[in-house]
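Customer escalation, tier 2.

The customer says the design service returned an amino acid string that "doesn't look like it belongs to this structure." They asked us to rerun it and document both sides in this ticket. The original C-alpha cells are below, unchanged.
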C-alpha cells in the first residue's frame, strides 16, 4: 500500500488541527447554485410597499441576507416576514443542492482521526440539520451553528462554532473554497485550509499570510488520514 505524501506546510497545519470548521453553503454544498437570489431579495423588498423610502443600495441589492438584515433593522414584524421568505427559499434550494464531491470522504477522515467537525453558516439551522440528515452526513458532524436573530460578522460566527466545539481557535482549521472564508479564518485566529474549486483558484485562496491550499476535498481527506493531530503536551509535566 502506498502511503499518502502530504506537503510539509500542509502537514504542519493538520498536525495543529484538532477540530474542523466547515462552512455549509460554499464548502459542504453550493446551496443557491441554481437559484435566482436577486428574485428572493426582490420578494423581501415588496413587503415594504411602494411608499417605503429606500436608499439606492437597498433598492438594488441582490443579496437576500442583506435584505433580511435591513428588514430586521426596520422592525421585528418586517424582519419576521423577511426571515420566512429566506427560510422558504433555503428549504426549496436544499431539496436540489448536492453535496460537494469528496465531502463524505473528508468528514469520514475527520471522524476516524478524532477531529470533531462543526458545520456553520448564515443558513437557517433547521435547514442545515435537515440537509445533513437527508444526505447521510449528520452522524459525521457535531455542532451545527446557523443564522440567529441578528447577522453576525464572519469572525463572530467562527468564534461561536469554536465555542460549540469546546476548543481553542488555534486548535481549529476552517476548510474553505472561498478567499473570503480564508480571510475570516485568519481574522478569527484559526487555521485556514483552502480547497480549489470551480469558483476559486489556488492563487486566490493562497492570498492570506498563513494559508495552505489543497487541490480537492478527496485530497484533503487523504491528508487528514495521513497526518494525525499532534499530541497535547501533558500539563502536569
Amino acid at each position: 500500500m502506498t502511503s499518502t505524501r502530504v506537503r510539509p506546510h500542509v502537514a504542519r497545519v493538520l498536525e495543529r488541527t484538532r477540530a474542523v470548521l466547515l462552512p455549509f453553503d460554499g464548502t459542504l454544498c453550493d446551496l443557491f447554485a441554481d437559484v435566482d437570489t436577486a428574485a428572493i431579495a426582490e420578494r423581501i423588498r415588496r413587503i415594504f410597499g411602494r411608499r417605503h423610502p429606500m436608499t439606492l443600495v437597498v433598492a438594488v441589492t441582490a443579496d437576500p441576507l442583506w435584505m433580511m438584515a435591513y428588514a430586521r433593522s426596520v422592525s421585528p414584524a418586517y424582519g419576521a416576514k423577511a426571515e420566512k421568505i429566506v427560510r422558504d427559499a433555503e428549504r426549496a434550494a436544499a431539496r436540489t443542492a448536492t453535496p460537494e464531491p469528496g465531502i463524505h470522504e473528508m468528514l469520514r477522515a475527520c471522524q476516524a482521526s478524532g477531529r470533531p467537525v462543526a458545520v456553520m453558516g448564515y443558513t437557517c439551522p433547521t435547514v442545515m440539520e435537515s440537509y445533513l440528515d437527508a444526505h447521510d452526513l449528520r452522524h459525521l458532524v457535531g455542532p451545527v451553528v446557523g443564522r440567529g436573530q441578528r447577522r453576525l460578522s464572519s469572525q463572530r460566527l467562527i468564534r461561536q462554532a469554536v465555542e460549540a466545539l469546546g476548543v481553542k481557535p488555534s486548535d481549529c482549521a476552517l476548510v474553505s473554497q472561498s478567499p473570503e472564508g480564508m480571510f475570516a479564518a485568519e481574522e478569527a485566529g484559526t487555521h485556514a485550509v483552502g480547497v480549489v474549486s470551480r469558483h476559486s483558484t489556488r492563487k486566490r485562496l493562497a492570498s492570506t499570510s498563513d494559508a495552505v491550499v489543497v487541490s480537492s476535498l478527496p485530497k484533503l481527506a487523504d491528508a487528514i488520514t495521513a497526518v494525525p493531530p499532534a499530541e497535547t503536551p501533558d500539563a502536569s509535566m
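Tier 2 assessment: The sequence is consistent with the input. The first helix runs from residue 8 to 15. The chain has eleven helices and six strands. Sent an explanation to the customer and offered a walkthrough call.
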